Amino acid sequence: MSATIPNAPPAVSAALDRLKDELSRAAGQNLVALLVYGGLARGRYRPGKSDVNVAIVLRDAGPEALKAIAPALRTARRAVAVVPLILTAAEVPSAALVFPTKLLDIKDHHIVLVGENPFAKLEVPRAQVSWRIVQELRNLTLRLRHRFVAAADDRDAQTAALAALARPLAIQVAALLRLAGKPVPADDRSAVLFETAAAAFAADGETLAQLARIRQGESAPGDLPALFGRVLTTLDALTAQAERHKETPP
User: Fold this and answer.
1) CA nearest 139: which of 102, 93, 187?
2) How far from the centroid of its chain's Cα atoms is residue 48's Cα?
3) Same structural domain for residues 87 and 130?
4) Is 104 within a domain?
5) Residues 88 and 165 in one domain
6) 81, 115, 149: which is the final residue of a domain?
7) Domain count, the chain
8) DSSP labels for 1-50?
9) Are residues 76 and 146 in the same domain?
10) What is the DSSP letter of 28?
11) pLDDT in tens, 157-193
12) Is residue 76, in this structure, part of any structural domain at all?
């Protein structure tokens, strides 16, 4: 049966069909599940720009098990830029405690291609989520500072750094809205989440909107250093909001 993924280009569907078949043969009973997540699962895959994110859940992820599935993953990576997240079924609950916003985002937006859904009953304590949001926002700030310094004389690299920031930030913004008891829009496009967060947290809506537009391929403004400064200030403001909602872990 072909992979049923809305709006997926034929080449992507074909590559995932092949990956599904090859993984099933190579891993056999060791394969618990193969899922698609990220932009493709959301129906917003951009050919030539988006990765194809897949989660592979195994019973055993030792060297021999990984060696068995490596050829299939290499083929898929070359074909359509498949990027795998490889977990064992036993690791999923503990991984959710360490990476709660990422795994909860996968739980909310995924398509199962093979096997059972290991994320269906995933629950993470609010306190764990609250600390992770702060950590992720601070990490985004540190990475953006580094990329600005590294690309100080390269406008294209600066633009790429801002474009790469938008979606990870949108995921944290959605988690922060939930944590703060604010409505989370059903439409989870970065632009919509940013607009909602700007209203909920009195953040710089125009800067966030500009960030979303750059991610969609629109031209960056002339004064990129000024935009970097506004984005960093906005990250600081959102981090301060997250700090106010932190809870003590159990």
Assistant:
1) 102
2) 17
3) no
4) no
5) no
6) 115
7) 2
8) -----TT--HHHHHHHHHHHHHHHHHHGGGEEEEEEETHHHHT---TTT-
9) no
10) G
11) 999 999 999 999 999 999 999 999 999 998 889 999 9
12) yes
Question: Which residues constitute the domain of residue 27?
Answer: 10-94+110-115
Q: Model's pTM, two decimal places?
A: 0.79
Q: What is the pLDDT of residues 89-135, one digit of tens each?
A: 999 999 988 899 889 889 988 999 999 899 988 888 899 999 999 99
Per DSSP, the three-state class of 208 is helix
Tokens of 62: 């030792």
Q: What is the largest CA-CA distance in the chain?
A: 55
What is the C-alpha to C-alpha distance for residues 70 and 86, in angstroms, rounded to an integer? Answer: 11
Whole-number pLDDT of residue 1: 42
Burial of 101 (0-12, 13-18, 19+ CB in 10 A): buried
- Residue 63 forms part of a structural domain: yes
CB atoms within 10 A of CB 176: 27
The structure tokens 């985004």 sit at 140
Give the count of beta carbons closer than 10 Å to the beta carbon of residue 206. Answer: 11
Both 70 and 135 in a single domain?
no
Q: Quick one: tokens of 90? A: 């036993």
Average pLDDT, the chain: 92
